[in-house]
Amino acid sequence: xxxxxxxxxxxxxxxxxxxxxxxxxxxxxxxxxxxxxxxxxxxxxxxxxxxxxxxxxxxxxxxxxxxxxxxxxxxxxxxxxxxxxxxxxxxxxxxxxxxxxxxxxxxxxxxxxxxxxxxxxxxxxxxxxxxxxxxxxxxxxxxxxxxxxxxxxxxxxxxxxxxxxxxxxxxxxxxxxxxxxxxxxxxxxxxxxxxxxxxxxxxxxxxxxxxxxxxxxxxxxxxxxxxxxxxxxxxxxxxxxxxxxxxxxxxxxxxxxxxxxxxxxxxxxxxxxxxxxxxxxxxxxxxxxxxxxxxxxxxxxxxxxxxxxxxxxxxxxxxxxxxxxxxxxxxxxxxxxxxxxxxxxxxxxxxxxxxxxxxxxxxxxxxxxxxxxxxxxxxxxxxxxxxxxxxxxxxxxxxxxxxxxxxxxxxxxxxxxxxxxxxxxxxxxxxxxxxxxxxxxxxxxxxxxxxxxxxxxxxxxxxxxxxxxxxxxxxxxxxxxxxxxxxxxxxxxxx
Length: 495
Fold this sequence. Notes:
There is one protein chain. The chain is an alpha+beta fold. It has three domains: 8-77 and 162-236 and 320-385, FAD/NAD(P)-binding domain (3-Layer(bba) Sandwich), CATH 3.50.50; 100-155 and 414-490, no CATH class; 247-316, no CATH class. The protein contains 15 helices and 21 strands. Helix 1 (15-28) runs parallel beside helix 6 (164-177) and helix 4 crosses helix 14. The termini are far apart.
């Protein structure tokens, strides 16, 4: 590593993680004299099934300077207003996790307590009826949120479904046009400083030597630099998140695209269905201790409405996180830093979150122990928070008798999650920190959808009487239905 500070940044691995990192770094480092080089091999495949995102994707696309219309066209993207969870409380059950907020503009957390109070007072009101985003999704309508804080349209929220392979290629063109150098080849050797142990250079099988001061490991599950070279260690979370395999298969495009992801509970896991412009993403995430790979493959194929466009591809993973994601002068981003299954579409978010943290903590010298410690601390907390949110889906199920689901209902859960469930059940409150990725609306959608019923609410809302509160909720329900009916349909916006 150079004693003159970080001048050469080397990214190992392409795919979504590598090219997102390259595009962000070359934009952020513009004019600094620092160079960004990416090393990847066309012979090494990428996981590339990350087709669904959450609303934080807007931040990333903006910081790298992507035009939304071009992005939608280049990645065959569709709009995503949330996720439908079907069958998680038994066959025929379904609930919706919308990306917007509940209630009217400006009421925020207190609205949830008004809703809880109304139900405790006997009002029969569906959760989806008080979310404009959910109503829009169910009726295949779409509009972007507006800035006017008085408008119901300000409560909308959205993300995208897109082809991850096309997204990586799009970002590659974007990054190379701005100065990123790409080197083709498999890495044969990794050089380390004899005294510090820092990585000094990578050498490809073809003999190209790429020296650097700061290395970004985007080599996927393997973790060539962070794990195989530097031995960061790994925390296995499969005792709480038992699914460790996924079959993925593309299907024909849907005639009428819906603006949400479907996550359908199955005998040993759950199936995804993600509509894109040119095809439909299908997959089955399952626990190998409860179903073997061949049976899981057959289960996925049997559930498809039409034959797949390609043979299903198997992905094996261990849910968890790297104990240290920044070691010496190596920062792991993407799958090399850990993996939380795609139930809430957080994989691409965790890539951009790692990038954001790196930009905030970018070192003068690559080997900075204090910056590395801070990076690891905040990333670890974010992954634990997301982990707990995912566990909630498995733990609070009902109406399913298969071995996986019996295991999940009985398994011990982290104290942090148990505390949140107990607080919500007893007081209607959702205990979050300011840094939690998923906010009150998301936690409420899943707690409510999974059947966790609060027995109390915040008494601060009792200035209005029970009858006034019921009238308020009924008026809101009608206002949301009226506003939804005026939104343009997706069909009218296609083409």
